[in-house]
Amino acid sequence: MKSPSDENNFKDESHQNVLLTQTVIETVGDGITLSGESGYFEIFNSKMQEITGYTRSEANSTVNFIDMLYPDYEERQKAYYFLNKLKKELIIEEHEITIRCKLGIKKTLLVTSKVIIYNQENYFLSAYRDITDRKKAEQNVLETSQRLTRHKEFTPLGYIERDERFVIIDWNYAAERIFGYTKEEAIGNNSIELLVPEGQKEDIYKIQELLLSQQGGKRSINKNITKDGKTIICSWYNTPLVNENGTTVGVASMVQNITERIEMIQELGNAKILAEQANKAKSSFLANISHELRTPLNGILGYASILINQENLTEKQKDSIEIIRRSGEHLLILINDILDLSKIEAGKMEILYKEFNLLSSLKSLIDNTQIRTEQKELKFTYTPHPKIPKIVFGDEIRLRQILINLLDNAIKYTSKGYIKFSIYPVKEKIRFIVKDTGIGIASEEINNIFNPFHRVKDNFKQIDGVGLGLSISQKLARLMNSEIEVKSKTDIGSKFWFDMDLPTVNSLINYEQLTTNDVIGYTNQKYQVLVVDDKQENRMVLKDILQTLDFSITEAIDGIDAIQKVKIKKPDIIFMDIKMPNVNGLEATKKIRKIPHLENTIIIAISANAFEYTIKESLEAGCNGFIPKPITIEKVIKEINKHLPIEWIYKNEKEISGKQKIESLNMKSNAHMFYKLCNLIEFGERSDIFKELDRIKNEEKDFLPFVDHVRKMVKNFQLISALKFIKDQIDAN
Q1: 651-678: per-residue pLDDT in tens?
Q2: DSSP at 199
Q3: Which of 117, 184, 513, 656 is deepest in the core (most CB within 10 A)?
Q4: DSSP structure string for 338-401
């Protein structure tokens, strides 16, 4: 028998074991339950309470606790299944279940259970581990893996995976399409031996070695061989595959067949070469045609500008020369239009902004329009607003070009009525308006009139021109941030207008200068000029222009001749044609610049090729300026002004002495002759007035200054002033 002390020791030991067991159950990281077949929980530890949200008393007081814990039918059936299995087999069973916690949150648990038989009753001891986060992570990994697999299989790029020996271990459908091998045929083969042409294998092995050593080779473009022996070009995107130790265990590659793209690039390259050749041929053609057309125009306009200033010409002769000059200038405008269209299309047209006198700049344009409208018996009115600024900042040449085209079209398409040209300020811009009573434009044609080579139809007569004026004008306007607008009605007329930003300039420069046609010489020492051109007619034009201005002229027939004569004559200024045989003008200029004491000689390049690159080449070669053919007195004087300190003598300085002579004339003795002239001015035609002036000039030599002065006023439509001048002279005598 046990003594009382032994009995007490046994109880203490049992109590300690119970305490130890309880401590283990409470401190273990899993939820622990012990329940009988009735469902009563003997043990429901704190971790289990944390997992489920229920206390032990709540679990035991609820009749259908298992239904609450497993509200999903499938999960509940799974729980019953494992419970029954435990009863039969009495073994530890590990399985996953999904429960719903007290707060309604679903959790996935890993359950390990065992049946314990005590006093011939079954008790279920279970451990519950919360694996919710792990299951989510596994699901994410699974979904990512599935997406990658789908991407790999359905991507248009070939996917090829190889081990460290370059043996293929994976191969998608796109790779099969590219190379022709099925997955079964490709896997197990050395990728280099299977896909690379014989001559390139060594290079590809080197690339693969770089990949395995993680030193490069991640992108390559190389030739490959397909199953049917065809050579293709592929772009390879390679990624080294490394294990947890950082060791490369293989290579994954995305492959794209770029054969068609390479061929397309080659075709585009060939097309680009052909386009460049065509563009070069076009530029060469334009340069040549420009040269060929400007060369004869050089003679026509050059001599027209010389002859128009001869004093011994009759009015009819002057009118004839004026027709020659205007016809030549019209042809020059057509040539320039074609060249300008080419420049605009090539994006090489430049807008050159500078200060200029707006109204003075338009004077010759207005005068020319007045003459042309008078010839067609049209009324022309020019109305500049009094608040138009005097000096503005803009591209004078391009503005004039736009207005010339608009006025030219108005004259062409108007056979009766009037043409009105108005200028007035609109906010901070200036509006230019050209209005006519011409044939008008049909509504269906309005949208096409600015297209190149489009011309408004006139059923009654042939219209001059090639249909470039409006197209170029609109393009020029847009280059200057403007837009030409139009309103028109058939048989009523048209109105064209545009607003141009021409900022006012408060300049101290005097822009009110006499026209170059008034220059007859200069007061300085006589300047030496060398004229260089291989064509005699071109030299003659320039020589005659310069001689009328009292320069001393030397001629040279090419670059070699120019270099020799420069050393002898030491000219003050050289007019150098660019296109010449033997040594051209640019080469001659470079050589002259190297001659001691002549390196600063003024050299003006002359060319019938008026492209910007020609001007640029000339200046880079050492020329000081550039004159495009055809050459006129105006262009020559303008260029000389830039480079020589010169003081011009003007024709009107002689006219002062002429007026003094007029005042000394005996007008009363010939009063009948001058009254007849007054009558013609008041009631007759201009042609009759000029005939009468020619008659007076021939019969009364002393009246030459008087005749010239009256002729000038009549020519400028100053008829009232002419009448007053004649009557004042008669009364004064």
Answers
A1: 654 444 444 445 445 555 566 777 788 8
A2: G
A3: 513
A4: HHHHHHHHTT------EEEEHHHHTHHHHHHHHHHHHHTT-EEEEEE-TTS-SEEEE-HHHHHH
Domain membership flag for residue 338: no
Provide the residue range defining the domain that includes 496: 350-500
Instruction: Flag residues of the chain having pLDDT under 50.
Output: 1-2, 6-8, 10-11, 14-15, 459-462, 466, 508-514, 653-661, 663-664
CATH of the domain at 388: 3.30.565.10
CB 253 within 8 A of CB 238: yes
pLDDT (tens digit, 9 = 90+) per residue, 345-400? Answer: 666 677 878 888 888 888 878 877 888 888 888 898 988 888 888 889 999 888 98
Could you tell me the strand order of the sheet in which 31-36 lies? 41-44, 31-36, 121-130, 106-118, 93-100
Q: Work out the number of other CB atoms within 10 angstroms of the CB of residue 220.
A: 18
Structural domain contains residue 164: yes
712-722 tens-digit pLDDT: 777 766 667 77
Tracing tokens 């001599």 back to the chain, one arrives at 303
What's the CATH number where 567 sits?
3.40.50.2300
What CA–CA distance (Å, rounded) separates 26 from 21? 9
Which residue type does 497 have? W
The string of DSSP codes covering 556-584 is ESSHHHHHHHHHHH--SEEEEES--SSS-
pTM for this predicted structure: 0.46
Same structural domain, 495 and 354: yes
In CATH, what number is assigned to the domain containing residue 55? Answer: 3.30.450.20
Count other C-beta atoms under 10 Å from residue 275's C-beta: 11
Q: Quick one: tokens of 531? A: 């004229």
What residues pair up with 360 in beta bridges, in sequence order? Answer: none
Q: Any idea what the Cα angle at residue 451 is, between residues 445 and 373, rounded to 5°? A: 75
CA-based torsion, 512, 517, 523, 528: positive or negative = positive
Domain count, the chain: 5
Contacts of 52 (CB under 8 A, 6+ apart): 31, 59, 69, 99, 101, 102
Q: Are residues 705 and 607 in the same domain?
A: no
Query: 100 and 82, same structural domain?
Result: yes
Question: Do both 551 and 602 map to the same domain?
Answer: yes
Strands 573-577 and 602-607: what pairing? parallel
